[in-house]
From TrEMBL:
InterPro entries: Aldolase_I_AS, Aldolase_TIM, FBA_I
Pfam families recorded: Glycolytic (PF00274)
The protein's enzyme class: lyase
Keyword Lyase tagged: yes
GO MF terms, alphabetically ordered: fructose-bisphosphate aldolase activity
Reactions that this protein is recorded to catalyse: beta-D-fructose 1,6-bisphosphate = D-glyceraldehyde 3-phosphate + dihydroxyacetone phosphate
Entry keywords, A to Z: Glycolysis, Lyase, Schiff base
Protein name, as recorded: Fructose-bisphosphate aldolase
Keyword Lyase in record: yes
NCBIfam families in UniProt: FrucBisAld_I
Family under the similarity heading: Belongs to the class I fructose-bisphosphate aldolase family.
GO biological process assignments: glycolytic process
Organism the protein comes from: Elliptochloris bilobata
Amino acid sequence: MATAKKVASPGHGILAMDESNATCGKRLDSIGLENTESNRRAYRELLVTTPGLGEYISGAILFEETLYQKTSKGPSMVDVLNKQGIVPGIKVDKGLVPMANSNNESWCQGLDGLAQRCAEYYKAGARFAKWRGVISIPAGPSMIAMRDTAYGLARYAAIAQAAGLVPIVEPEVMLDGDHEIDRTLEVAEATWAETFKYLADNKVLFEGILLKPSMVTPGAENPNRSTPEQVADYTLKLLTRRVPPAVPGIMFLSGGQSELEATMNLNAMNKSPNPWHVSFSYARALQNSVLKSWQGEEKNVAAAQQALLKRAKANSMAQLGKYDPSVESADADERVFEKGYVY
Ligand code: 13P
């Protein structure tokens, strides 16, 4: 409960930097870098050593490689985060695989041996965990896929809590599709109803979890784009209908929204008080401009760290409902949506 509260503290959110090696490789490839351990380390070292990051970021989700990695200067990534006052977290799922007899949907692996891995991750310094299941609206979604996602999340959450880790519960309703916003709300409501039923059945302590939902928006391939006020209205409707106030924090994913959209939507949700801390756990919407500034060059590290700080601060202000978009440049509105995104 103390960890959940610390992560969900005013003006703070999570930096998701737990891309699998394959996905991190895609990020590096976008700036012409090879997917080697040393390039992944250089990139992640740049992120965690950003001076002053802890002012806006309270938690960082790591991939296993990073949890055990040392920076080039000697201290471990975990030590650097702790010094910044940032709680280290760990992605514990083993990724998505096709689900037989579904509508080409997937299920999330990783329960086997999870208790032991969680105990080891705790020893290595992790204090919270993440597990990402996905729900596809164009695929139906089928009841078996939705139920399996919810049940898997609940089993994971119970196991993580037993090992002292705060579970981030993430059934990502993907942006893929050309549906209207009402359809997203309907699927998200069904998803969270299932998820909370199984969380309760598994006796998960609600005060010691964090949620990572998608915002309720029209499908990415729908020509209509909602205003931040509409997104906030729909998303808060979802949350108030489905999430008990015992849950301390709602940490949204960005899901392919532009950096600007992700910040504006979060800000709109914090214009009036909420029963939970409503904040961010972004990967793409925090990292996009960092990668562009860095380009893999040592001489650009300081500029790239400034880019991260700028996004972190913007989202921190949005968490407080005090964000001013007039300071943004046009490229912050570049969308990074990718069909069938795998993490
Ligand atoms: P995005 O913010 O890029 O959607 O990623 C967040 C995340 O951690 C997905 O699991």
